[in-house]
Amino acid sequence: MSKVVSLKEAIGEIKDGDVILTGGIVEDRRPVAAAMEVVRQGKKNLVLIGTCSLCDDIMVGGGCVAAYRGTYTSNGAFGISPNFKRKAEEGSIICDDIGHIDYSIGVMAGMAGVPFIASKTCIGTDVLNPAYDNLGGARSVARNPEVLPKKKYVLMEDPFFDMGTVQLIPAIKLDVCICHVQMVGEEGTVRIDGSLTFDHFAALSARKVIVTAEQVVPESYIRQDPNRNCIPCTSVDMVVELPWGAHPGQVYNFYDMDIPFLQEYAKSCATQEGFDKWAAEWIFNENGHDDYINKLGASRLQKLRAVPPYGYVPRKKGGVK
Fold first, then answer.
1. How many whole angstroms separate alpha carbon 62 and alpha carbon 112?
2. Is the link from the previous residue into 115 a cis peptide, with omega within 30 of 0?
3. pLDDT by residue (tens digit) across 88-118?
């Protein structure tokens, strides 16, 4: 049965206070168009999990996010995520740091259905400093507090190999996972070219999975080569065909990042007034993503199309094309 819906319908399934994770990493395969729709629909009190880059920063600037549990906040080479930075400094968003590797294996534990996993990577760091433990704040704003762990970590002595103190990391569980991918079958089978990042773990850790894609194809086609597929249709709830859905980021084999756009975003969103003006121009339009793409224009988008066999647009030394 087809799971193809509109972007508006898919994002409409997200509830205020949901714990959500957005797929991809830095500016690669980030569900930017989905994040813009979250802002258009005025979602509130979301708890973000993972890594905060452009799509997450857009939701923060739009007033949709109450808490963030993650590993870093950066729009790649374009600086710290400006909206998140500003709100963190103001104290208007709850921040609870978790280790990068701990995040990775925490999502893996969620996928495997186990309650926790052990690590030593954050021992001796301020990630485990009780003074910076803001998990309780995140739980207080979540619609379903039980999705988040009751404790940030537990320390214990290794009972198996006498390796000393280890940190028990709770599994990462989610209300919603949103991924943007290259190709998905109409029934939800996902194919990702290049790095999977943590999408294939997060999709199996979430109660609801929304997949936006550059292409939606018949299931009969995508299943002809099952070794290239990474998320089963049984784990996906909704599918949205959304060409250019990660712009101004990149999608391997489809298009490269739009550097001038990312530079302008970083400059514009240094203040809330700047973000509001940027959002009025790029987010709040009558026909959503279609108007966004039309405003960018065919000529600009054509220059971003990936060049075979690279999968992106090659640049000369210094970043100049």
1. 34
2. no
3. 999 999 999 999 999 999 999 999 999 999 9
